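job 3f2a | input accepted
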Amino acid sequence: MKMFRTHLLFLFCLTVLTSSAALAQSIANYATSRTTGITYNSIAATGSAFSSWRNNGSYSQDDNRSYQTDIGFDFWYNGTRYTKFSVSTNGFIDFSSSAADGGASTGAYGYDNAAFTGNGSGTWLAIAPFYDDMTAQGGVDALGNSIKYLVTGNAPNRVLTVEWINMACTAIPHPA
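job 3f2a | predicted structure (176 res):
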């Protein structure tokens, strides 16, 4: 009987070990591929500039947030319907009705990355593809030429595209 148990235990271990090895997969069997199926087309020439910005003071090209703009369709985010959005020079769009100007502060909608939290006290109603302390480049209309948006398609298949064009990371220290 003892020999039978030993053989049974051996057979069990052999089955488990060989079946695990047979199901194991090697990363060498996979290739990395990044594709969305959507071709990138810049909207620098065709997009609309934002008509108004909250911070028109000394930081107008840096640490600024637009007033709300119509999305052009219903956008559902975290289970809530939104029809308007704001854009920041710091690489994010948000759906908040907050009056924060995104100025030189570490609070919500400011340049400090730590403001993105899930606890409701920070910049949490946002999509942040380029969130960093960025600034629009100079020129006659730096904000008008650096951040544009465009709604394309027909209902119910509309797409909102926002593009940050030739932005630069800010190297200037911010006031405390």
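job 3f2a | Residues 3-23 have pLDDT under 50 and may be disordered.
job 3f2a | closed
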